[in-house]
Amino acid sequence: MNNVLAKLGLESDNLGACSGPDHWLNVGGEWITSLNPFDGEPIARVQCTNSGSYESIVVQASVSFRHWRTIPAPKRGDLVRDLGESLRRLKEPLGELISLETGKIKAEGVGEVQEMIDICDFAVGLSRQLYGLTIASERPEHRMSETWHPLGPIGIVTAFNFPAAVWSWNAALAAMCGDTMIWKPSELAPLTAVAIQHLANRVMADHGVQGVFCLAVGKGDIGALLCADSRIPLVSFTGSVATGRTVAHVVASRLGRTILELGGNNAIIVTENADLDLAVRAILFGAVGTAGQRCTSTRRIIVHESVGDALIARLVAAYKSIVLGDPLLPETLVGPLITAQAVAKMVSAIERAVASGGTLLTGGTLRPDVGPQFVEPAIVSVPSQTEVVREETFAPILYVMQYQTIEQAIALHNDVTQGLSSAIFTDSLRQAELFLSASGSDCGIANVNIGTSGAEIGGAFGGEKQTGGGRESGSDAWKSYMRRQTNTVNWGRSLPLAQGIKFG
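User: That's the sequence. What structure does it adopt?
Assistant: Structure tokens below.
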């Protein structure tokens, strides 16, 4: 463990906030201990930001923004490119640290760092493509156009399950767009944030800038300060629906902007002509990857009654082969849940599902012999979509229900309050196109013959309904971090008014 910290430049077990490339700042707040969820042992202590140091961070981000926004976008892209190169050099130890702190297996931790590298590459390309529009004017000798300008210092609040990648979706694009930012990471994964900030500080120093990337470690009080702060024009929040409602209300009350990435209750429809071998592999990764603690985790299977028994038999067999254990060992497929509270919620959800008519087919057994926060991934067959099935339980529980018609399957699929990711497995072109049509999936992500989890950075990521409606990462998500300006230039010598108005 200490070797991993040393490789990342974190030699001390007690870390404050980064204030420069080679030293740490005492930020005055309480100390929180980063725990390894595999064995409950402490990794390091990180000092929280107090209200006074928060003010200093916001002032620095605000002052830095006034300079950073004047640097040409391709030059800003150079800094993002170098951040990506820094991540490339330290991909393995940073991925290992993510695994240590969150419990996800090392392959997923390293994959998360690769996602950061990919979004940096994407942002560098975008730095020469911040295109506006030319618009036809109704007035002679006039030209209309749209331009995009940096927005300001933004707030980024991230969750424990992706302690690095979600920050980078926002940070790489925001920095390229000319914004500065303040990152409030989850208190369950502060050490990963400190390590990334340490790398970012070195890159900023190499480019002769500071305050582009800022870090404010803390609990809910720091998040509340960011949301209420009128100097922060945009808050990007990833977390629960309940907290997302509060964030939306507070930020909207000051007429600020939000990007909300909230809950997911993602389903896969498996049709009567689906490739079951393909479906089983996708369901297994989607349901048990990151121990079911992804917002895109597969939580519901809606399978045609003609292949339901066959699919269930294959899934049960696959689940029995899952290896639980130390997430750093190559043979491990599933690590621990993040907290004891998460374990309790999983056990309670299974009990409720069985009490409402479900049948526990496999899993759900506590495994203290492996570690204090291990539960075997569970499959529960349910006769209908009950209340507990409609809820998102952040744990590896897979509910399976059967259907008769594709219209019934889509209705079941959409009959939840969340709308993040979705998929259908079918060899029918008509069924696939129906699923992707306006009458099909109501989610922000809809896939055919791939699972719900593991989105690429090139597409905009986000969902509908109580998932929040925000978009991050690829496509034109960069526009969220900028302000749009409509420009009209009169290059003639007369002053005609729009709509043909005659005045005076």
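The CA atoms of residues 18 and 178 lie 21 Å apart.
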